[in-house]
Every structure is written in C-alpha cells, then in structure tokens.
Amino acid sequence: EAGVAQSPRYKIIEKRQSVAFWCNPISGHATLYWYQQILGQGPKLLIQFQNNGVVDDSQLPKDRFSAERLKGVDSTLKIQPAKLEDSAVYLCASRGQGSSYEQYFGPGTRLTVT
Amino acid sequence: QKEVEQNSGPLSVPEGAIASLNCTYSDRVSQSFFWYRQYSGKSPELIMSIYSNGDKEDGRFTAQLNKASQYVSLLIRDSQPSDSATYLCAVNRGGTSYGKLTFGQGTILTVHP
Predict the structure, then answer these.
(1) Residue B10 and residue B14: Cα distance in Å, rounded?
(2) Tens digit of each residue's pLDDT (9 = 90 or more) over A45-81
(3) C-beta atoms of B103 and A104 within 8 A
(4) What backbone torsions phi and psi does residue B12 show, to the nearest 5 degrees?
(5) What pLDDT does residue A93 have?
(6) Among residues A68, A66, A64, which one has the least CA distance to residue A86?
C-alpha cells in the first residue's frame, strides 16, 4: 500500500511570495490533515478535511493560508503572501474509516522563507 | 497549561537500558493516545496507539495509560542507538473531533553505545 505522497519536498521563497503544496493521501482514506511543524515543536493542525468538506480550520491563518480538496482525494495548501514566520515543515496526514484514529504522515515539505 | 505536555529532554540512556518517556494531557475526555517517533529531518512515524487503561506491549515498546491521572508513557526496553529520535505524544478527544490529534512538543531521546 502506497503511503501519503507530498510535493515538493523542499521550497525556498522570498517573503511576500506565494507557494503551494500538494498532498495525495493513502488510497481510500477519507480524512486528510495539514499540519505545520516549526523546528523544535510538535506538529500543529492547520486544517482537517472529511472527504471534500472542511471539518476544522480553526487554527488556519485564513488571511494568508488556504486549502482545498475538491474531489475528496488529493489536496493543495497555499500560502499567499508568505512571511518569515511561515518557515516550517508542512506535513500532510491521512486516516482511514472506522474508530481507529491512527494518522499516517507523508514526508513533508520543508519551506524556507527568506 | 498546555493541552499535551512532555519533557523536552534530551533524555540520554546507555545502550541496553530502559528508556521511559512521559506525557500528561489536560482534557479529561481524551480517548485515544499515540506515540510517534520522528528521526531528524523525517516525518513522524506511528509506533504505538493505546485506548484503554493499562499496558500495551509491542516488541520492545510498552505504552502505559492512566486516564485517572491523565498520564501516558512509553517504555523502550533494550534501547538501541537506532532508537535515538524525538518521540511525540499525541492525544485525541474523540466524539465529533474527526480524529483531530493534539501533539506535545516531543522528547529527544539519545541512546549512547
């Protein structure tokens, strides 16, 4: 079974530029999560999708971050415009159906904003 | 008070020893608990999940849960240098949270030969 796929793996941009990250979850997983992990901290949830609907985006900075999962499979997270403090690893995770809440992470995208 | 707290460490143990990692959580209705291992520069990898009070063993790993004390721990027996990593505790409150996990800041473990 293929794992969660993410691209790109690394991205360097200047502040005020825009950037987009892509995620393809494990096949059949209905729930998809985007996390931000700043160096030395645990992952922080940005947004959570159930199929193609948003179920939690309470910690997403909506003035600059947006995300979509139009067909209920892959997802895109966008930052526009980027700030220096957005430098972090952006992790995508997915979870299957059922009562287990186990989430599986992709390799992440390391973003550096200069 | 943080929702999920871990000692940041670093925790250093000799090879072959037992490493003990601790985590406390503040939300009393939390139902599911997870330990993830994260090597430097890599993404978190699920190593243990526990849902009910008591111990759960998987190979060299044992997770312990005490809901009354709001405490979950991970024991690593016969620690190996390859166990050196950051260990993340994650908690889910169940219900309508759709599996949302809240993570601690992680404990850095170093196993020295």
Answers:
(1) 13
(2) 999 999 889 999 999 999 999 999 988 899 999 999 9
(3) no
(4) -115, 125
(5) 96
(6) A64
Beta strands B85-92 and B102-103 are: antiparallel
What's the residue count for chain A? 114
Write the single-letter amino acid at A79: I
* CA pair distance B92, B112, nearest whole angstrom: 33
Tokens in use for A92? 């995508």
User: What are the tokens at B77?
Assistant: 């027996």
For residues B101 and B43, give the distance between their C-alpha atoms in angstroms, rounded to a whole number. Answer: 15
Which two tokens mark A5? 């796929």
- CB distance A37 to A89 below 8 Å: yes
For residue B46, give the nearest of A43, A55, A102 by CB distance.
A102
Q: Could B103 and A101 be called an inter-chain contact, meaning their C-beta atoms sit closer than 8 Å? A: no
The count of CB pairs under 8 A between chains A and B is: 58
3-state secondary structure of B26: coil
What's the mean pLDDT in B77-88? Answer: 98
* Residue B65: strand, helix, or coil: strand
Is A52 part of the contact surface with chain B (CB cutoff 8 Å)? no
Nearest CA of chain A to the CA of B9: how many Å? 11
